[in-house]
UniProtKB/TrEMBL annotation:
Pfam families in UniProt: YafQ_toxin
Classification via Gene3D superfamilies: RelE-like
Entry protein name: Type II toxin-antitoxin system mRNA interferase toxin, RelE/StbE family
Length: 105
């Protein structure tokens, strides 16, 4: 079964910014997208896990890490419970997404 990826507007904005600031990450991120399309999940090398920090904005969503060199990009996504689709919520460095480093431009 193939899964459909549905990026949010925020994800699209994050991805555009990531392409400019960390273009070296794009091939690895696209490989992760292909895994999600083909399998609906990511292999353990991406360390996929459910977010559950106290008071966290993305609790219950999935988080995975895409590494390339020294940059650790976090992909936040939500598989649909009954449909073959995956909502892409955010992507960026850990600091940008979870420590307030991302500022609206």
């Amino acid at each position: 079964m193939r899964y459909r990826l549905k990026p949010t507007e925020k994800f699209k904005s994050d991805f555009r910014r990531l392409k400019m600031e960390h273009p070296e990450m794009i091939p690895e991120l696209k490989e992760a997208f292909q895994e999600l399309i083909d399998e609906g999940t990511l292999p353990s090398g991406y360390v996929p896990h459910v977010l559950g920090n106290r008071g966290g904005l993305y609790n219950g969503r999935m988080d995975a890490h895409i590494w390339e060199g020294r940059v650790d990009v976090v992909l936040v996504y939500q598989p649909h419970a009954s449909q073959p689709s995956i909502l892409l919520l955010r992507c960026g460095t850990h600091g940008e997404l979870f420590q307030g480093g991302f500022h609206e431009r």
